[in-house]
Amino acid sequence: MSLLISLLLSAAFGYVAATIMHLNGPWYVYMLLGLAGGFVGNVLFGLIGFESTSILSHAIVSIVGACVVVFLYRKLKK
């Protein structure tokens, strides 16, 4: 059950990041974006010594990470 909740939260965080970055796509893109954003965000924030311990901090880390993923995708696409 926690895997399902994690995937739903990832999709929600990916949707928020896609909205911020003006990205359109199907629901699975948002889920993948949220999952990648969670990983990238944890790595980036871990480098500066920040650890997400609550759902709010996890949301912020995932959304910022997903925005970084979208930004890098757009730069590499050009």
Jot down its keywords:
mainly alpha, 3 helices, globular
Quick one: overall form? globular
> Given the helix and strand composition, which structural class is it?
mainly alpha
Order of helices and strands: HHH
Output mean pLDDT: 84
What is the rounded Rg?
A: 12 Å
Overall structural domain count: 1
How many strands in all?
0
Relative helix content? over 70%
How would you characterize the largest beta sheet? none
Ends apart, CA distance between termini: 40 Å
Residue fraction in strands: under 5%
Word description of this protein:
The chain has one domain (2-77). By secondary structure, the protein is an all-alpha fold. It is 81% helix and 0% strand. Helix 1 crosses helix 2 (27-47) and helix 1 packs across helix 3 (55-77). The protein has three helices and no strands. It has helices at 2-20, 27-47, 55-77.
